[in-house]
């Protein structure tokens, strides 16, 4: 009997233990005080995982953030001309290098146009020389036309294409005036002396006025204070070298006098307008005026050949360097 009671008690108590053991899982509120301890690891694990995800999430944004930062660089390089890339490369080696291309525009007659010789003209030579000197890329726009007078250049300032070129120019070189003159009168005794002769004084006065309006017109189209305008003189407004010598000493004397008078006008306009005057006579004829320029001229004795254009380009670069313009372009 005692044994039977003991067995029954064990069965009853065992069922209660199972029921109690099941209760915490079945009754969530009842497990609050004890479950936290048992559930702490999962609870702690979940925040830890969440915290880890949160830590990773901030790490991910910097990657997208760095991608946009890099993305603009790629389009800029791909859409920019190779000239700009050259400037950018140069800037890596010099703290004073500009990061965008500069622009050169040429106006004038057959000398800057350079279409009378099978050679590279001085305007086209200036582009690479300016790039080397300023460590920035240069675009070149040659709007000079053979046969142009100063009046033609002035009229060209109304041309939309020329206006577009001039509106962004850093340097404008102008060489014009020889075609304004009646060169058939050179050497005529009635036109001597040239400086006071009625054959040329009126023409030279008109040239002076027109050149002034050309400079003003250029500045009205490009009003940036760092714009530089270079007015180029002539080594001779007519033929030179052996071609001139063949026409006699009177012709040579008159041509030199007319050239000096024309260059004086160009120089005066440059001084008054804040432009740069470029002496091209000395490179061709020497400081004393006795150098034979034949080897630097075409067979016509009038237009420069390749070596002549090289002389002009050098003269322009030297004038720009003396004026400080090259340094300004390098530092801007």
TrEMBL record:
Region (Disordered), start-end ranges: 27-98, 281-304
Keyword Cell cycle: no
One GO MF term: phosphatidylcholine lysophospholipase activity
InterPro entries per the UniProt record, alphabetical: Ester_Hydrolysis_Enzymes, SGNH_hydro, SGNH_hydro_sf
Low complexity: bias regions: 33-58, 66-98
Pfam families referenced in this protein's UniProt entry, alphabetically: Lipase_GDSL_2
PANTHER family per UniProt: SGNH HYDROLASE-TYPE ESTERASE DOMAIN-CONTAINING PROTEIN (PTHR30383:SF5), THIOESTERASE 1/PROTEASE 1/LYSOPHOSPHOLIPASE L1 (PTHR30383)
Record protein name field: Lysophospholipase L1-like esterase
